[in-house]
Protein: Glutathione-independent formaldehyde dehydrogenase
Amino acid sequence: MGTNRGVVYLGPEHVEVQDIADPKMETPTGRRITHGVILKVVSTNICGSDQHMVRGRTTAPKGMVLGHEITGEVIECGSDVEMIRKGDLVSVPFNVACGRCRCCREGDTGVCLTVNPGRAGGAYGYVDMGGWIGGQAKYVMVPYADFNLLRFADRSMAMERIRDLTMLTDILPTGFHGAVTARVGVGSVVYVAGAGPVGMAAAASARILGAAVVMVGDLNEERLAHARKVGFEAVDLRQHDRLGDMVAQIAGTPEVDSFIDAVGFEAKGYGGNAKPAIVLNQAMEVTRPAGSVGIPGLYVTEDPGGADEAAKTGNLILRFGQGWARSLEFHTGQTPVLRYNARLMNAILHGRLPIADIVNATVIPLEDAPQGYRDFDSGAAKKFVLDPHGMLAA
Structure:
């Protein structure tokens, strides 16, 4: 296996690539398992959710190995693994899911009931998600392998599109989930809040689902320019704070059918000030009566850097009466990746969804991860893909 290296969170604004322990076939509590596999990590991505932790906006403990977006090659299988074989190239959903509990059996793998003693739902390398070791590393262990892993049947075809396929672990299914739960369909008028990678994935998903107009709003000119470049209507939120007026300039009406919040709790308003509830309030303002709001953006229960005392405990000031009066539909929570990733894989392999170009996938070595975090935090219009073994570069 060789020396394992991983991206380790050492405190706010501080990550380092360090030697870390080799993965073991055991749970975070040390219980031995036989249903897992060890992966040689082919690609692993920096996510905006990781950035929340690195900014110090969560209660993440120092020493955590980060990373929940993992694509890898199986190098070892537990004795109870039946469907996955050594040498398989696989995509790992960011959800850790048992496949056996009520939620998993009903397809709600984002809130598995058994893999996290603290709450429903588990994930790799993320605060309060069960303690599973992250995959921004050279090697990682994945439990419940037969249930969780998506195998790429044709390895050579997969490697040709690996920059696209690496997005199947999280951001593409998350953006797609946002669009599906916002009820995007043929002819929909759609507004996506946030031109980061998840927002761009949501916009791409809206387009493949048949939307007539897809608007993407942001305060970052570089990201807005990229959104325009790949064919979406850019809404520059630096202009003023009347979102309905800006929507009307593009769509001819101040309302949309579907609203997707890809920003979450670190939202900022006109002028750049922290306003954690602004996107949700805008959703209730511009979504038409009986319209739908998908919320793939992350909202946390504890935010040490919150704008006020309420925000520090996840309490937001919402004009919820407006949403109620309009009979709006809201959908929140972790994306159940397994619900979507096989179909999205086919869309990628058959040339229907060039997601790497849409999110501007940028491959860097694992050892350059700290710089990738800094660049991403500065607002770069890129999705950083880490290449632990040089397989993407090759």
